[in-house]
Design brief:
Blueprint: H1 2-7, H2 11-24, H3 29-41, H4 45-58, H5 63-75, H6 81-91, H7 96-108, H8 112-125, H9 130-142, H10 146-159, H11 164-176, H12 180-192
Length: 193
């Protein structure tokens, strides 16, 4: 019943169902994973963390739970986030949430080379992530790899043509490379959207 509630985005009801299931079967990691997802969707970080930690305790190698827990901990600025995300990636190297969360954490820590690797790996798994492509562009620009930054920004722009910050970033890099005509074309196109 809880899964049906979650699938229809009725998170309050889903959380109640999973709470009941957790009381009835306190050893089922899937119940705690689903409870953590519902609590996360409701913005209840502390309760989501508790449920996901319980899932982690019951099944330490469950990639989905580790990715969600690591992502949550990374957003909260917790040190252990990196270790948990690495564990998720060890179990499932193509986990996009874990790759993106690890990239965000690395970016926050100014570990740009590692952030570039994480974001690139995520885009190799799913090339339709405009935000990740934008972040990769920013990282590559920060590393001075301007042609790579252009490629990432162009990908983000193709995925979300009306997003002005992407066009501005792309035009900025083109301008730095003295490709003024291309920069002007990007800005003109952005102005018409």
């Amino acid at each position: 019943v809880g899964l049906a509630m979650a699938m229809s985005r009725r998170w309050d009801e889903a959380a109640r169902e999973f709470e009941s299931a957790a009381l009835a079967g306190p050893g089922d990691p899937e119940v705690f994973l689903q409870l953590g997802k519902a609590r996360h969707a409701l913005g209840q970080s502390a309760k989501a963390e508790a449920a996901l930690r319980r899932c982690h305790d019951l099944d330490p190698d469950r990639s989905e739970a580790n990715a969600l827990l690591g992502s949550l901990l990374a957003k909260l600025g917790r040190e252990e986030a990196s270790e948990i995300l690495q564990r998720a990636l060890k179990a499932e190297p193509t986990n996009v949430l874990a790759l993106n969360s690890l990239g965000d954490l690395q970016l926050t820590r100014s570990d740009l080379e590692q952030a570039a690797l994480s974001f690139s790996a995520s885009l190799q798994v799913d090339g339709h992530q405009a935000e990740t492509a934008f972040k990769l562009g920013f990282v590559m620009e920060s590393l001075g790899q301007l042609e790579a930054a252009i490629g990432a920004y162009q990908t983000a722009r193709q995925l979300t043509p009306g997003l002005l910050p992407v066009s501005l970033a792309l035009a900025g890099v083109l301008d730095r490379l003295k490709r003024h005509k291309e920069a002007a074309e990007v800005l003109e196109a952005a102005a018409t959207l």
